[in-house]
Amino acid sequence: MREQAGLFGQGLGREQWMAPVFEETVLTNIIYTFGWLAGIALLVVIGLFIFRTATIGFRTRDQYGQFVVASIATIFAVQLALNILEISGFVSLIAFSLPFIGFGGVGFILNMAMVGLVMSVYRRRKLSIQGEVSR
After folding, report:
1. From CA 52, how far away is CA 99, in angstroms rounded?
2. Is 133 helix (H, G, I), strand (E, B) or coil?
3. Across the strands, what pairs with 127?
4. Whose CA is closest to 79, among 26, 129, 6?
């Protein structure tokens, strides 16, 4: 009989480790090892990051920058939602990893590139389309 994760998890030193961890099921392993509090805290931090990314898009004056940041926030939100649906069993495993938590691969590099784009748009958020600085 498999032990349940509990509020604080089973810890790192347990002999009954979960099945091999795939990139799609890393949240399940985090919840099993560190508990539901850590899993929920991780999801809240990622959700706040997505919210902050969306607010950067709303504060940008350039319409192209708004579309870029809105698209990136949507991509992160879809990754998060699909990963939660995958580990819940509502959707079959379709290789969507949790943003920034996966252990390498092209997805992690693309996530970092998208963060770089958001930072670039944020840096130039007060520029209008003609290049004038708004005060």
Report:
1. 15
2. strand
3. 133
4. 26
